[in-house]
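> @MW can you paste both from yesterday?
MW: sure, first one:
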Amino acid sequence: MAERPDAVDIAKNARTLEWLRAELVGSAAQAMRAMARGEEDAALDALASGVVVCYLLARRMGASYARLDNQVLARLHNSIAEGHEIEQWYGDLTQLAAHLRQPRAPRP
């Protein structure tokens, strides 16, 4: 008996989710190793990969990229309002929220 196309899609999506989760963990590990060695470019590359994977995971879960952006902004605003230590010490959360709200030029 042949597999139904929707069953194949469900299995493919499940495998993709597992693969993306493993990629996220791998990116975090690569970033930590690069930071420990003082390799800034390698650390930034690994962090960028992790961010991309997060967007892809959200998409595979059925959320739009804009919805993830909105959720990140909401998380930042909540953390700022709650007086998160990183915000109190450095103001990083406010700076990140401002950065994310900046209009972006269209890319080719």
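MW: second:
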Amino acid sequence: MDILLMGPPGAGKGTQGALLSESMGLPTFATGNLLRDAVSRGTPLGLQARAVMEAGKLVSDEIILGVIRDELDRPAAAGGVIFDGVVRTIPQAEGMERLLADRGRKLNAVLFFDVPDAEIIGRIERRRGIEGRPDDDPAAVATRLQSYRDQTAPVLAWYESRGSLIRIPAVGPVDDIATRVRRALALQGT
């Protein structure tokens, strides 16, 4: 079973992805974490991604799809994956569709975590205070939100036209949001 989590930065994809991973026994592919790991290890992919990430911009489709291709080839991914914030552009969505089709798979559900900007900014400020992530500074957050609106928001219509998009109201206690996710997946037959 393959599930894609979508939403703006700070929408709760990582938190809900971890809960789904635990309950379903599936690995989570959080592109941001995979890219940060590649940067810290100094891999060729990490070197390409570092400047883009530090500027608060979105990493290219080719780099994202390269990371996902490599991760899908790992044995742990054979039974399915929870993709956390992987698809941010229509070319990435098309590439993801091809990567999965090459393995005889498809996305079973696309969950969109719907959160107002004011809530997102507050969440990211709290996360920055706890984790100290350099990509969470206010200027980088503003750039990422604008990039999200410009590049990622159109992907919602792309998935909606395929009938796989599920909107999740993602404001409130974590457990309440997790319940909404489980109900939506159950209704979807996932």
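> thanks! Helices lie at 13-24, 31-41, 44-54, 61-72, 90-101, 117-131, 138-161, 174-188.
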